[in-house]
Amino acid sequence: MLDALKFFLFVILLLVTIMLNQHVTSKRSAELDLELLWQIQDPKDEYVVHNHTVPSGVYTALEQSLVIGSLLEEYNDVNTSWIGETDWIYRTNLSCLAEDYRYVLLTFHGVDTFASVYLGEQLLGSTENMFVRYRYDVKQLCDGESRELRLQFRSPVVEARERAKDRALPIVPTCPPDVYHGQCHVNLIRKMQASFAWDWGLAAPSMGIWKPVRLEYYSSALIRDLTVAINEIEVNGIELWSVVVGVYLETGLASAQLNGILTFKIIGVPLMHEAEQTLTVMNATNDDGELLVEQGLTVARDAVERWWPNGFGKQALYSLYVRWEDVAVNGVKLPNPDTMISEKVIRIGFRTVQLSQERTSDGLMFYFKVNDVPIFAKGSNWIPSSVLPERSYDGNYVKFLLYAARDAHMNMLRVWGGGLYESDHFYRLADELGLLIWHDLMFACSMYPSDPDFLRTVQDEVRQNVRRIQHHPSVAVWATNNENEVALRQNWYKTDTNYSAYYTQYVELYVRTVLPTVEANDRWRTVLLSSPSNGDQSLKERFIATNPQDPRYGDVHYYNYFLDGWNAAQYRGGRFVSEYGFQSFPAFTSWPEARSYSHAELSQLINHRQHSPLGNEPILAMIEFNLPLPSDPSADGYWPELIYLSQLSQAMIVKTETEVYRARRVEHGTMGALYWQLNDVWIAPSWSSIEYGGTFKLLHVWLRDIFAPEHLIAFVNERRLLEVVAVRDTLEPAIQLWDVEIRIHRYGSFRLVERIRKDKIAVSANTVTLVSSWDVYGHLAKQGLHPADHILMLYAYRHPMDSQQQEPTPKPIAENFALLDKLKNIRKGQRVQPTIAVNVVSAVCSDRNNLTSVSLEVSVSAPALFVYLQLTPENSTLKQCQFSRNGFLQFQPVRTVQLTCVDPGCRNKIQARDITVRTVNELLVR
């Protein structure tokens, strides 16, 4: 009777707690989300936000309560800078009852960043690292009384400033360039480095509870993390998969003796040995209440399908279930047996990933082999999806961006080291979509301290995050930092005068702390010391290579802002190009101020958001190399024209560079092309291919062709020869026969000048094949044709004997174009202004998914160069609108283009007048 009464009281208290501010999320050892009815205020009570929900941040709370406008509008990045300089308080009421639970822990999965944590008047502890999970024993305070849970946040800007004082060796750079409008000393604190501004992003030094906070009740052990190491083995001639499962058990915050059973299942997959399904554990946790238990599982090779990167096969995933049950569950009758049971399920993939660095005649190779197949890595660099950490975990937006990467035929993303360890949702999607992850640890573009307190919290950070992320088959490699090796070697921050001291700090942090911590928690992957780096060669040179950008080793980051980026002859590449790219402006209609600002005001805003120390000059210079540059910056049409030209120029530069890298797979051993960058955090000039909010720039539309698994590449090389290369990333069949057609067109006429064919080209699987190296300029000269008047259109077809079925009008499997001169050099006779009409053929909107699909017919009276379609600003309620083709060459009278938009409620009817059209032609005829 007493047990029943106690249980009844516990249930009543749980219900009261739920009604006040939280809900139950676990059926086993009780877990309560503390998410509702938080109050946020500054110490002077000038700004108070009631009934707020966490995860959250101060900027988000103040925006939602209308204390400030949107951080991302106008000049609010500067106007709201006072928020980051102010201390803030989060508070809520908490009532809990320990009952018969052995452990009651208050667990913060992410606190941004410096906070003192109180329950009632008792100080539980303090936080100092936004990437670390903090746990506090609150059992003695869970007596049924209501107490205030309070986090007193300290300004990260002020904290960083204080930590910089009285340092014998300054941690450089001390401040970002003035054009960033950022804050100083970010490298002294363990917070998202880009919170303090970057050359593509605004400063928003956030504070808050950016991940869930939970009460955890249990009486035996909690399974915190599961890790796996999956490898192919052969035993007595039988091909098997070996799966070593690491189970990280927790018993509160102190050592405790454990006696129980772990059960292992891979759902739907039989284990080779029945005895592997259970493991008896009789051991004690360490002084922090943690215990690692490992169990080997064996699976027949043919019992599962392999996991493959996007474009190479299926992304087969299997659920690994692990259950902990204390021996006491079956020994005595317990009032709450579930409190001695813990369960966890993760999804795993059966695959091998090897980073190959075999020796060549001039250096070392550097490429990934998945399931023993060499993979040319095609993709981009990922920055946080929002500058505010709590918003970066927006599941729908993350899904949109990752699907956009998958649909552009990417197979790898690099999670950049100045951002975040991403959400579980991010990695699950990467697993499902076949996106390999090159994962930096969160250190970027700086020197860092190596004092004991800093190294201690870094160890906690790396250990916790590697364990959380490790089991995902998409993760291919770890790198301990972004650009810090090259920064030290090339004296980016004037470190040469104290090189020995900075070198010692570098080795202490990355070689002696981060590297072994990663390796201790993930025995399944390679760990690189930096990016760019010379890989194994850097290790031989005492961790800092003489030239970390040596194209004969490792990976390189390549940027050029002053040589003609449209000229393929300037690109050599390296073994693996993990960063490269060029800036452009977001679409004119993407600027929320475009309709209300005058021309001069918009110019001022765009310049304010241009954070590159070089300003807009590289964009203007690259346009001027190749295109007619708008001449009057004061004209009303200046920005729409310049934005269009900037996006065209960016697309051409990244196209040219990427295609050279793909074509040089054999000649230079180039096996990776990850352009900078996929996404943005606000509407601003940047290197992204997708604007903040989801609008594709021209580059991202083009990427579907640039990264296509079967592609035909054509460019004029350094010997002034037209190089035509067939590319196949596909694995079957071993040989395909392609027919390649080169068409010579005049710019001013639909009439074809000449058609040249090369039939039955044998194109091997998973490599590149040279189709032709042709003196096109000599060929034109013999016919009295001027290169500036002509363009080449190239098409590849499956050879009829190699096709499954005969088509009356075969569709090309790949198409491309090659410029023979700069567009601005097209001679007067070929400069035409076509009449262009856009007609809506059909429009359908689905109420189920709020997706509008519109079929457009684009008609031109003469060849149209780089046709740019855009919705007018009046359609602002439509979101994530994408054209199937954009910035295209139209050398036929009619072309069909599909437009899709997210249209909540299907309220919009898109008509022809809603589509604006721009071409290079209109600039040439002026």
Query: What is the domain total for the residues?
Result: 5
What Rg, in angstroms, do the CA atoms define?
30 Å
From the coordinates shown, what is the CATH architecture of the largest domain? Answer: Alpha-Beta Barrel
Largest sheet: 6 strands, antiparallel
What's the number of helices? 18
How much helicity do the residues have?
A: 10-25%
The gist of it:
The protein is of the alpha+beta class. Helices cover 21% and strands 33% of the residues.
From the structure above, extract its key features.
single chain, 926 residues, alpha+beta, Jelly Rolls, Immunoglobulin-like, TIM Barrel, 5 domains, 6-stranded antiparallel beta sheet, 18 helices, 21% helix, disordered N terminus, glycosidase
Describe this structure in words.
This protein is of the alpha+beta class and 926 residues long. Helices cover 21% and strands 33% of the residues. It folds into 5 domains: 30-215, Galactose-binding domain-like (Jelly Rolls); 220-348, Immunoglobulins (Immunoglobulin-like); 368-705, Alpha-Beta Barrel (TIM Barrel), CATH 3.20.20.80; 710-830, Sandwich (Immunoglobulin-like), CATH 2.60.40.10; 836-925, Immunoglobulin-like. Helix 7 packs parallel to helix 8 (424-433), helix 14 packs across helix 15 and helix 15 (638-663) packs parallel to helix 16 (698-706). The longest helix is centred in the C-terminal third of the chain and has 26 residues, at 638-663. The termini are far apart. 48% of the residues are buried. InterPro entries: Beta-gal/glucu_dom_sf, Beta-mannosidase-like_N2, Beta-mannosidase_GH2, Galactose-bd-like_sf, GH, Ig-like_fold. It is found in: Lysosome. One of its GO terms (biological process) is glycoprotein catabolic process.
